[in-house]
Amino acid sequence: MGSVAVSRRDDANDLQASIADQVTTIARKNLAPMALAIDEGTLYPSELLRRLGDVGAWGSHVPSNGAADLRCAIQSIAAIGEVCGATAFMAWCQTTLVWYAANSDNAALVGKFAGKFATGQILGGTGLSNPMKTLFGIEKFKLKGRRVEGGYVVRGALPWVSNLGPDHLFGTIFEREDEPGGIVMFLADCSDPATTLQPCKPFLAMDGTGTYGVQFRDAFVPDELILAGQAGPFVKKIRAGFILLQAGMALGLMKDCIDIMEEVGPPLGHVNRYLPQQPAQFRELYAEFEKEGMALAADPYNPDESYWRRVVALRLRMGDAAVAAAHAAMLHCGARGYLKSHRAQRRLREAYFVAIVTPATKQLRKMLAEF
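The chain above was modelled as a monomer; its predicted structure follows.
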């Protein structure tokens, strides 16, 4: 039996390595030429996202026999992030949507959507920015709902939800008006006429990420779309995965910033050596983050409070390091990095997003202070 278990583990490792390799190839060959258009907001890469789903990028972390492993998913997002931070963010949105559906106890929902999310047949995102802030005492729930026959009626608006389109879905939470303290997590269907997508004002970066304001005007949410009737325990179950999958964004961006610094070494190294932050320092930090991230990602259901604290602390450090690495890359490039045609300035803009996407640096610091 032991040899069988080892064989299965080796097969799984080979499959995950194959997925990461295929994602890397697609990112470098197909995504790289699109990065500028995605950054400028003229392209939302839906077909590329579906192609990544075809090679398994969105399904490697689906739980099996009560366990889950996020390592391949993080590696895939990192490979995408080396090329384009905006697409890495969309990859996080898609893998997080899969994470929600795969962890739901709603058999009808799982049967209808989990596989299609995991293969990229259906694309979508995560609308937990407001709920995550609310659950940690920063905001109040923006969506309200009440029970009706066969489901709920939901109203309210979310200012920013990403990786959306007219046929997409996303996960979010409403507060029950008919049950004090009750909160429900559900899949929102963007094709519902009572659910409206509103374009956002231009961002500093990330404009090609399918980000919209979403309004619910008494939208009916059938029981089939309920991820968790009691959202509190469900969020506690999926929260480590929600945060750890973001590690891919930071790792990919840091890796490219290190590459940028090394690329300008031959012509500028004689003066860049006087800068306080060098690529070798960031390589060491990257290795540390990767080791810790992979260790945590292998056990996302760990209930220990010490484990959860490590997740939060790592996410905070990675956000800070992403900004530091991008800042250093700009300084190493000098004037050439200040050109709009150079990716260094794009990486800096993307790095600030890693630091402010929920949970943002300030929320993470608040969470750590309250442990």
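Residues 126-232 form a domain with the Butyryl-CoA Dehydrogenase, subunit A; domain 2 fold (CATH 2.40.110.10).
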